[in-house]
């Protein structure tokens, strides 16, 4: 089953074509990384797919239905979740409450804080939240106030919040930016674990090649808005076009 597919996806800014007829498809359970030099069009591509930008041309299908015409929050409701770069944590709530809110928001399309007072009426949501906390290694700390978590655990909670929506695809934009080497390593391990455990489908934008080669099933290389190569990490690593793009700018 194809989770995400773009056909001829194009975005022009005046005379500049930032994303140029990109055909990309991601299957269920596949972990795909989007790489390319600065200005290649990676962020623009993500903004198109999440409906934050309107394409100039082309189509985007999510779960085999076109999402053109949908608002960003409707895309999220259909199962596309974006982690990182979003201040998604409520600092004064507990770890578990944060996960519950994320699960509720996904199920109901919106949430009210007073849901938390009636959480016993939502055993299913609490179960999802606790399972997610278990899988990101935060179950023991579920009663801690979110703001008191250390940096690495806050990032774990961000992943947990994204997963609590039980997404069909997780988008990650430079998930380890600003992390220490230890935090980076544990986050990469966590993404690998969660992928195994939940058969997670993800699209990752990342410039650290070590991470990309470590966690991707497939790599798509953009340069000047166009896909210049794709394949397994081993295939992409040896591709002369990729080496040219990085060395030649
Ligand atoms: P990447 O994320 O791969 O570094 P971007 O998608 O941010 O690349 O940018 C691709 C190209 O589009 C760059 O040349 C950038 O300057 C240009 N660009 C991105 N956003 C805009 C915008 N809102 N208006 C005009 N040009 C833009
Ligand atoms: Mg970018």
UniProtKB/TrEMBL annotation:
Alphabetized SMART domains for the sequence: AAA
- CDD domains, alphabetized: ABC_Mj1267_LivG_branched
Q: Which Gene Ontology molecular-function terms are recorded?
A: ATP binding; ATP hydrolysis activity
Entry superkingdom: Archaea
Residue ranges constituting the ABC transporter domain according to the UniProt record? 4-249
Q: Which Pfam families does the protein's record reference? A: ABC_tran, BCA_ABC_TP_C
Q: Which SUPFAM superfamilies match?
A: P-loop containing nucleoside triphosphate hydrolases
A single Gene Ontology CC term: plasma membrane
Say yes or no: keyword Electron transport present.
no
Q: Which GO terms describe its biological process?
A: amino acid transport
Keyword line: Amino-acid transport, ATP-binding, Nucleotide-binding, Transport
Q: Where are the transmembrane segments?
A: none
| Family assignment from sequence similarity | Belongs to the ABC transporter superfamily.
Q: Which PANTHER family match?
A: CONSERVED COMPONENT OF ABC TRANSPORTER FOR NATURAL AMINO ACIDS (PTHR45772:SF9), CONSERVED COMPONENT OF ABC TRANSPORTER FOR NATURAL AMINO ACIDS-RELATED (PTHR45772)
Q: What does this protein do?
A: Probable component of a branched-chain amino-acid transport system.
Name used for this protein in its record:
Probable branched-chain amino acid transport ATP-binding protein LivG
